[in-house]
Every structure is written in structure tokens, then in C-alpha cells.
Amino acid sequence: MQEKLPTFWKLLSESDQRMYRKIQEVLSQLSTKNKRNTKIDDFRELVDAIDIFENYDKESKWRRCLACGLVKFDGGIAVNTSQLSILALRCKTSINTSLKGMGYTIISGNSSESEEFLKEIPYISGNPSEMRQWTVRYLEETSYQYQHQYISPPEGIIPETPVYQALPMNQGQIEEIVQENSLINNWEDDYSNTNFDLITF
């Protein structure tokens, strides 16, 4: 089966492409192991990992956001499920269910959350067809406390330090996070002959 790549794959630098595939491969390995947390907790950890990857530098952040299909901002989150499903190895239904379980509610029309989203990816504001691929959600107040209760991120994806303390990060730091995972210590950087099947659960 031909490898499925995100729509904006070619916008990523070669190092970002390698990092994208490493995150994807770690998620593939983790999906086959016994999980200590619920699917919602697993997805929350995934969101944090993607957020770190996207924010290691601001200049090209928008490119990684488009490729990953996820943007976190103060008070909300924007998701392109078609793109995120490729990286997360989850179907759209699973993604939407997890977001709802995390306390994110879909908003409609103009809002402060939508404005914050467009600030992160200005490209979308001038591209209505792309804008329609995204849903913007805000975080319900009642879920804020629960958002900070999970304490067991999957090894090799995100550091023990909270995300807000970990940013900004450089490319070397991000690669080190993934390379420390025992599942991928011996992996080669050349993924040219590797195919990734979209896993749904």
C-alpha cells in the first residue's frame, strides 16, 4: 500500500518530515501495546506531543500545523480531522469523540477562538476551501481541572516537563525526545522504503 501523506507534506522541511514520521511510528507502536490510560488520556498526550513539535520555532509553525491538522491556542483548539487522522493513526470518529471527552466544544460563526486560530495560520484566512476543512473548538470551563490530572505521558513522545515549560524547543531537542524511546533507539532515519497504513480504532 502506498504511504499516505498529509496534503501539505511538501511544505515541511526534510528534518520536519523525519520528525513527523518518527512521531507517527511511535504512535503506531504504542497502539499495539497495553495502555495504562483511557483512549481520551492517550489522545490528550498526543495533542501535547504535536503541540511541542509545532512550536519548536515560530517562523515555520504554520507549515507544521497544516501538515498535522491541529492547532492549539489559548482557550481552544482547531482540528482538520482528515490530516490529523493520518498522523494520529485514528479514524475521524475516534478523534471527534476524544476531543469531546477532553471538554472541547465546537463553535460556529465568528468568535474570539476563531480569530486566534486564524492568527496561527494566516494562510487559511485567504483560502475558504481550506478553512472548511477545519473545526474550531473551545475548552469548557468545567473540564479545565481534569485537563491537568493525567500524569503518565507515553515514553518517548513528550517530556516530563509541562508543555508550557518545554517551549520553545529546537529540532535537536525534539528528535532527542523521540529517540530516547526504547522502541526506536535503533531506528534508521531513512524512511524512504517504509509504508504506513492508516490504523483505525
UniProtKB/TrEMBL annotation:
InterPro entries (alphabetical):
Initiator-bd
Every Initiator binding domain range: 14-139
Pfam families linked to this entry: IBD
Q: What is this protein called?
A: Initiator binding domain-containing protein
